[in-house]
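Table 4 source record.
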Amino acid sequence: MAPRTAPAVVDSRGGTRDARSVEPEPAKSSAILRVRRLSKAFGPLQAVAEVSFEVGPGAIYGLLGPNGAGKTTTISMIAGLLRPDAGEVFVDHASVATDPARAKRALGVVPQEIALYEELTGRENLEFWGRMAGLDARTARTRAGELLDALSLADRARDPVKKYSGGMKRRINLGCALLHRPKLLLLDEPTVGIDPQARANILEFIRGLAAQGTGILYTTHYLDEAESLCPRIGIIDHGRLLAEGTLAELQERIGGDRLFVLEGDWEGAQPGSWPGFTASFSVIQKTARQLVIAATAPRDPAEDLRQLLNLPVRVTNVTLKRPSLNDVFLQLTGRDLRE
């Protein structure tokens, strides 16, 4: 039974849209991926709305959002699997809509769902997807051997994939997208469902790809992965890119290094009605026993603390911390990344 999604082969049905309606790719852009005002609706549902971002050679860009935020739709349009209603995607300066064959040559896709032939060996899977990517038999065989070594799977090359662990399958799935040496790699949840050691091995391999110049678009629900792996992060929800930047830039949006966690009885409390509160703080999250707020006034944290200890509700404990990526999510989307 064939896999549901090919990891290395991108659908080249890009369509026959009038090229005159597409703004040409700027010649000076060095980005390996350029997404420009991309939109897609399914009936009344606006899945993606005017999303724009870039990924440079050797860069790892984390595209993060809760379930249903528009990540998969965006990736599908970048890969040429969905035709956008508006906007354009350029891969290695080639339009996915008007020059799909050239874009496909520069693109590798690793879907979240493992797309391998279980009865074939690891080597046979690699060689098959290499041929599907346009390599001749000899090149596919040579390249498969290189990837088996690089992925530390040479000793299991002749074993059927059905005998592999989850982490090994993830590595072969990744290798299948790399046979043709793509300049851009789309990684959709590549470490989901595997043990910590296998996850660490895959992340280290991804860092190595970026160091060699491969541009990577990365989606994950593991916040620690995004924080450690992705120098630049975009946050998407309800189809819109709400914010993007480095982790430090995103943290700065909600108070930089001044985030206070207040413990107490917050049932029925209305912080917005407290005198002077909204001029100094913004609420990130409120539960019955905990209030998370960001300092917005440019002053010493000691002054913030003095004001907090004088709130009309008794505070039993105060913790000062630097905002996490999840705190940024809570402020921007009102929900946790995993929701």
